[in-house]
Automatic annotation (TrEMBL):
Domain of life of the native organism: Bacteria
Transmembrane intervals: 20-36, 42-64, 85-104, 173-195, 231-248, 254-278, 290-312, 318-335, 356-375
Sections of the chain in a coiled coil: none
Domain Acyltransferase: start-end pairs: 17-338
Any single GO BP term: lipopolysaccharide biosynthetic process
Protein's UniProt name: Acyltransferase
Domain SGNH: residue ranges: 420-648
GO cellular component: membrane
GO molecular function, one term: acyltransferase activity, transferring groups other than amino-acyl groups
Tagged with keyword Transmembrane: yes
Keywords attached to this entry: Membrane, Transmembrane, Transmembrane helix
């Protein structure tokens, strides 16, 4: 998010059309977040890129003027930033943390405390980058997720002013410096977009080029354009932004090359000047300017309201609720601007206001850290064994072979790994995605008891289908490596037994190569048939060296078996649901895998592979599957992945291969 320059002290330079451009940016983001299923603005996230360009332009314009006139002071610059950014941020952080104290379970509040701490330190983008991946908590459960963009801007503000001041002192070529840094940052962006989209999205080094595009405009502010050309540029600029917001989707590789369109559009509008047609007639409209003036607090408020609605309901808000959230966000933004931001920015005794604002954010950061360290303050709730157990289950780390085995290979982004346990003469390989490797604690239990009689290998990749030919064009692009690595391992180590969990994997941006064709794995029959045809070929390859077992679908339910959903939530608090039956009909759980299990049975019949079923170990042999074991301990950590404490003692379906 960007902050408007002080329109009191710089009134002669004030451009209302830039506030109007802010309105376009913030409304794009708000609509994208509030109505994700309406497909109105599937690319509304580009509003952040518009803000980056505006920020780079306005901040650099101020810096150039002050440095050239020998009035520049780091203390003065950062004081203005604090008075502009910190007051609204402090109010938002305080409100979000206070409300989280009421409605969040301990594990959730601990995560919120972490978000507050990192948000106050403008490090949210680094945290999201380090957490991103298959096992990251859903974005909708993070009320302060949106502070990543504020982090990038503040990191730019930390580096750019002193660098620019030094360059002026050394009489360096400022234009060349800007272009050089811009090109370097853009090159990093393109490189990461091809290899690591998460890093590309969150790291400042791949985003600074967008702010530097604005800085370049500020440096060449004397460019003279004919009136007709200005009108044309402004029309092209707004068209580029609107086309991006309407046609881009979250599944695309972004920022990458695609970010050029909204960045160029924003730069064009700024370059065209306040008298260009679009700027004068649309962006300088009183309504647009008014929304632009409250764009920063509007950005701050809208996402926490949306995220809390997800958390409380356990599902997205209805369209009616979303409209209400947008209205509430606008009202909160206006009140924040009117009663908090304005008095601090434009009132007297600015030095004191700066100190108070900085102290408030620092104290809130410390409070967030304390809540994080205190594990979400479970003492908030009355003594309840059920709540403690549910909370403990949600805190369980999803098992990975890296937790306690000899790691032979590990992809640092967590998308593939090879690990080994046991020293027996017989060799067994277990391969699949996360729904397979959470059986690993049973291997460790047998090893601890001296009963593991094999050398066992895990070849795994979170969310990866273990079938050759699958091409994923997103953060799981490395999945293709897993199937090939297993085949190499079986041949090299002379593995006698292979256990596979290769379930069909409908997914956007994924394809499977079959007989020279690239077939989308989007849920269609053609992709499914190609998937299992490739699996059949793969099983036959493995059978040249080993006996192959296929694991049928395992029980999972994001509602009935999920400890995070075993509580009653409301706008006033959270409590354990005491009168709900958490046993799920096994027929319902089996139905989830009816088609894929039928396909696996067909592959087994065709190839002679053997089938394994984990249902009896997890659910027993009755008609329902309980979410609990022992003294009402949850079996699952999230409704999909079994807790290690359960897997160790209760998963016996592989024992005959291991002992």
């Amino acid at each position: 998010m960007t902050a408007p320059i002080n329109t009191t002290t710089l009134a002669h330079n004030y451009r209302p059309d830039i506030d109007g451009l802010r309105a376009v940016a913030v409304l794009s983001v708000v609509i994208f977040h509030a109505f994700p299923n309406e497909a109105w603005l599937p690319g509304g996230f580009i509003g952040v890129d518009v803000f980056f360009v505006i920020s780079g332009y306005l901040i650099s314009k101020i810096l150039f003027g002050e440095i050239e006139q020998h009035r520049f002071s780091l203390a003065s610059f950062y004081g203005r930033r604090i008075r502009r950014i910190f007051p609204a941020l402090a109010v938002c952080l305080a409100a979000v943390l206070a409300y989280g104290f009421v409605v969040l379970m301990p594990s959730e509040l601990a995560q919120l405390g972490k978000q507050v701490f990192l948000g106050a330190g403008f490090l949210s983008n680094f945290a999201l980058w380090s957490e991103s991946g298959y096992f990251d908590r859903a974005a909708t459960s993070k009320p302060l997720l949106h502070l990543w963009s504020l982090g990038i801007e503040e990191q730019f503000y930390i580096l750019w002013p002193p660098l620019l001041w030094i360059a002026f002192k050394l009489k360096a070529a400022i234009g060349r410096l800007i272009i050089g840094l811009l090109v370097a940052s853009f090159a990093v962006n393109i490189a990461l977009s091809l290899t690591d989209t998460s890093s590309d999205f969150y790291l400042p080094v791949s985003r600074f080029w967008e702010l530097l595009a604005g800085a370049a405009l500020a440096w060449r502010r004397d460019i003279a354009l004919k009136a007709g050309l200005k009108h044309l540029i402004s029309l092209a600029g707004i068209a580029a932004i609107l086309v991006s917001a309407r046609l881009f989707t979250a599944d695309m590789r972004f920022p990458g090359w695609l970010a050029l369109l909204p960045v160029a559009g924003s730069a064009g509008i700024i370059l065209a000047g306040s008298n260009a047609f679009v700027n004068r007639t649309i962006l300088s409209n009183r309504v647009a300017v008014s929304v632009g003036l409250i764009s920063y607090p509007l950005y701050l408020w809208h996402w926490p309201l949306i995220a809390f609605s997800y958390v409380i309901r356990g599902k997205p808000p209805t369209s009616f609720m979303a409209f209400g959230i947008v209205i509430a966000s606008l009202l909160l933004a206006w009140a924040t601007y009117r009663f908090i931001e304005g008095p601090v920015r434009f009132g007297s005794n600015r030095a004191r206001h700066t100190q108070i604002a900085a102290a408030c954010v620092a104290v809130l950061g410390a409070c967030g850290l304390a809540v994080w360290v205190a594990a979400g303050v479970p003492q908030r709730f009355p003594a309840s064994q059920d709540l403690e157990k549910l909370n403990a289950a949600t805190l369980d780390v999803i098992y990975a072979p890296t937790n306690g085995m000899n790691v032979l290979e590990y992809d640092s982004r967590g998308h593939s790994m090879v690990a080994q346990i046991g020293q027996g003469a017989r060799k067994v390989a277990l391969a699949g995605n996360s729904a397979m490797f959470h059986y690993g604690p049973r291997f460790q239990q047998l090893a601890d008891e001296g009963l593991l009689a094999v050398r066992a290998y895990f070849v795994t990749g979170p969310a990866c289908p273990l079938v050759p030919g699958v091409i994923a064009r997103d953060e799981f692009a490395n999945c293709a490596h897993v199937a090939n690595r297993l085949l190499e391992l079986v041949q090299k180590e002379k593995v006698q037994t292979v256990v596979l969990g290769p379930h069909y994997w409908p997914r956007k941006n994924a394809f499977i190569e079959r007989e020279g064709k690239s077939i989308p794995l989007d849920g269609g029959d053609e992709g499914r048939r190609a998937f299992y045809a490739n699996l059949e070929d793969y099983v036959r390859q493995l059978q040249l060296n080993a006996t192959v077992y296929l694991v049928l679908g395992a029980p999972q339910s994001l509602t009935g078996l999920n400890p995070q959903r075993m509580v009653t939530r409301g706008v006033t608090g959270v409590r354990v649901e005491t009168n709900v039956d958490n046993a799920v009909p096994i027929a319902n759980l089996r139905a989830v895998y009816a088609q894929s299990d039928a396909d696996l049975r067909a592959v087994a019949e065709s190839t002679g592979a053997k089938l394994l079923d984990v249902f009896p170990d997890v659910c027993g042999n009755g008609e329902t599957c309980s979410a609990f074991f022992g003294t009402r301990e949850p079996k699952f950590t999230d409704g999909v992945h079994l807790r290690p404490v359960f897997a160790r003692k209760h998963l016996h379906f592989l024992d005959f291969l291991l002992m």
